[in-house]
Amino acid sequence: MRIPTVTEKGVSVSVESGMTYKGSGVDIEAGDRAVALMRAAVSSTDRPEVVSAIGGFAGLFDVSRLKGMRRPLLATSTDGVGTKLAIARALGKHDTIGLDLVAMVADDLVVCGAEPLFLTDYIACGKLVPDRIAAIVSGIADGCRQAGCSLIGGETAEHPGVMAPDEYDVAGAATGIVEADAVLGADKVRLDDVIIAMGSSGLHSNGYSLVRKVLLDNAGWDLSRHVDEFGRTVGEELLEPTTIYSKACLDLVARAEVHAFSHITGGGIGGNLGRVVPEGLMATVDRSTWSPHPIFGVVGEVGGVAVEELEKAFNMGVGMMAVVAPDSADAAVDVLVEHGLSAWVVGRVDSSDGTSVELVGEYN
């Protein structure tokens, strides 16, 4: 049986009946199964302000708490995970990549002093495999719980013919809130302020194009290769989740005089710390106060990558920095250690000679 002829640009085209959306590569039933699998993980992130349930067309969040604030400002941030996804796909391990997504988004919000309230995600894939999507979302939910925000909504899109069946990409956007007079940043930074470093868990989610080029493409290392310096395989090292600093940073703001935060992502310490240093001042960072994770030295040695180039691409073992008043330095370190972070005084704010950030000394 045929359905009526459709005329396209003057040419009669006979269309066979029986063609389905699923036959074109989009499986709506698989999407429904994925939602059912992720429901419990998503619900576990609910804050008291969450009104809507999973499955609605939009997420609802009760903002009546704003009535008690003097001048509340909403903060927003969006990001992805980059080519770290290639490692997750190659290993078939998808339950940690969501932690990276939340870290990249929520920790950008906290830099201005904002409390992350809720996050929405977007997952595009070549073929919707319910268990894989549920694993990704479970990681996002885990990250939201660690950051203190709710996973209030999301979208999963199947793109057959555009993406390969095993390909996917993730992105997220989050909203936070902060009092206008409590916004942190360069305008609060002063001469002689102390810079506190917070240790990273490794690469986090930046510089993977360089890492993959050096270790996997040029050196030909397999992800299953055990590396003594790592104490585990290449794949396990590269898939280590990003540290989420949000709750620790918010507690630090409540218990010490914090003037600024800097999330150390792409661009390294120099590229990110410089964004919160005002004109006329300079952040001096002493490399001798810490030892970078072995992954950075291995990439440098195997790839012949100079330290200066490594510092442009990687966090070098410092995932977040806080700029605090001098008399808050000791208390700041204590607060961060209470949250299970490695933290130490890494430098100070000096007068500038035209440079916003100067790294001095050699790594320990």
Describe the structure.
The chain is α+β, with helices and mostly antiparallel strands and 364 residues long. The protein has 2 domains: 25-61 and 68-182, PurM-like, N-terminal domain (60s Ribosomal Protein L30, Chain: A, 2-Layer Sandwich), CATH 3.30.1330.10; 186-360, Phosphoribosyl-aminoimidazole Synthetase, Chain A, domain 2 (Alpha-Beta Complex), CATH 3.90.650.10. The protein contains 11 helices and 14 strands. It has a 6-stranded mixed sheet. A 4-stranded mixed sheet has the order 3-6-4-5, covered by helices on one side. The longest helix is centred in the middle third of the chain and has 18 residues, at 130-147. It starts with 5 loop residues before the first strand and ends with a strand.
Give the strand content: 15-25%
Q: Span from first to last CA? A: 77 Å
Helix and strand pattern: EEHEHHEHEEEHEEHHEHEHHEHEE
Strand order of the largest sheet: 10-12-7-13-11-14
| Sheet of most strands | 6 strands, mixed
Rg over CA atoms = 23 Å
Give the name of the CATH architecture of the largest domain. Alpha-Beta Complex
CATH class category name of the largest domain: Alpha Beta
| Unreliable segments of 5+ consecutive residues | 1-15
Helix share, percent: 25-40%
Tally of contiguous helical segments:
11
> Overall 3D geometry?
flat
CATH topology of the largest domain: Phosphoribosyl-aminoimidazole Synthetase, Chain A, domain 2
- The number of distinct β-strands equals 14
